[in-house]
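Review form for a predicted model. The reviewer records the input and the model, then writes brief findings.
Reviewer: anonymous (R2)
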Amino acid sequence: MPLTRTQKEELVSSYQEGLAKAPHVFLMDYAGISVPEVTDLRNRLRETGGSYAVIKNRLARLAIKGAALEELADEFQGPVAAAYSDDDAVALAKALTEFAKEVPALELKVGLVEGQVVDAEQIKQIASLPSREELMAKLLYLLQSPVERFVRSLADIQRQFVSVVDQVRAAKESESS
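Model under review:
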């Protein structure tokens, strides 16, 4: 059943609010994926803070005019779906690549990460990066390590001082006896 003008305007508006504004967008060919598989993909993407939408190409090209995603306007041909997120590109890419391994019908085409166009191979490389939480933990460890060593050094100075004072005391006691 064809869409009415109002429905098309609503779709363009939703694309402008979500897809066109998202800093991380991955486009894919979804032909051959069953409805339960798409539902599973949507659930996985929601867990990462992402969204999934099957795209009406002509309407999407209208919606992305003037946005960073306009660089990918030529990719909106044939059956196209988009996964997008405002949060974590790595988690989104991981969810997509893991799903693509399980369901080979899903073919990653191209993406946009922080304004940079990435191809399917680069999406897989992004997916192999550590998650944001892992990177934050590593950074915290690196920042904490020098401070911890400094505190240990200060504690060693006190221990050494006490040891020297104890040795001087022992030497004076042995001289007086």
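Findings: Helices lie at 5-19, 35-47, 57-63, 89-102, 120-127, 132-176.
Further findings: DSSP finds six helices and five strands in the chain.
Recommendation: see findings above.
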